Amino acid sequence: MPHFVYNLDGTSSRKCQCSVTPKTWLGHWERGTGLALPVKCVAKYCGNVTEVGAHVRDDDDKRIVWIVPFCQYHNKRPSSEPIELKDAVTLCGGSMTIDCA
Ligand SMILES: [Zn+2]
Ligand SMILES: [Zn+2]
User: CB of 91 within 8 A of CB of 4?
Assistant: First the structure.
């Protein structure tokens, strides 16, 4: 089943509040999922190298902010544009108050 997410606007000022370095959203994703960072962007058909932890919302639950490893191209897609993810991508919660540890 296709899995779509949408970029969230206005998240560039959000900084990861985790107590360990690196305090980046990619580091946050690694810590939160316990997985190794994917080499390639998790957007379907994208072969670009992972560059940023992007703030997205899931089609299924629009209340929750999620982090996914994207390239800059996909991080910059407009929030109106659905982005299909590769199979079996793990999303990490991206709430600074709930998910940063
Ligand atoms: Zn990409
Ligand atoms: Zn964090």
Answer: no
In the numeric block, the tokens 């606007």 are attached to 9
**CA 101 – ligand 1 centroid, Å:** 27
- Ligand 2 center from residue 1 Cα (angstroms): 29
The predicted-structure confidence for 19-61, as pLDDT tens digits, reads as follows 988 889 999 999 999 999 999 999 999 999 999 999 999 977 7
Tell me the C-alpha distance between 3 and 1, whole Å: 6
Q: Which residues pair with residue 52 across a beta bridge?
A: 70
Encoded amino acid at 18, one letter: C
- Distance, CA 53 to ligand 2 centroid (Å)? 11
